[in-house]
Specification:
2 helices, alpha+beta, binds zinc ion
């Protein structure tokens, strides 16, 4: 099921993350910078497209029981999204 996110909210998050994947999961297999954060760049607009290009990405709820707002969403590249989706729970 695809969560609906307000466009303006995703835009805010996109500016916040400096157009880079926000995944800091140490168990993820992404290429990490020295802080452990994924180095994948995100292309604006790709989140609304139905494709699996490397710079595609999705907004995710950090706490799924709460509504989408700026501190409760993170932007994950396709690779990290798939990893997050396979976590139990
Ligand atoms: Zn990533
Ligand atoms: Zn990751």
């Amino acid at each position: 099921m695809r969560q609906e996110f307000p466009h303006t909210l995703v835009r805010q998050a996109y500016d916040r993350c400096e157009h880079r994947c926000e995944c800091t999961n140490p168990n993820c297999d992404h290429d990490a910078d020295k802080y452990g954060r994924c180095t994948q760049m995100l292309r604006w607009g790709a989140w609304e497209e139905e494709n699996d290009s490397p710079d595609s990405w999705e907004p995710h709820l950090i706490d799924p029981d709460r509504p989408p707002y700026i501190s409760n969403i993170c932007l994950l590249c396709t690779n990290c999204s798939q990893h997050a989706a396979t976590q139990p729970g």
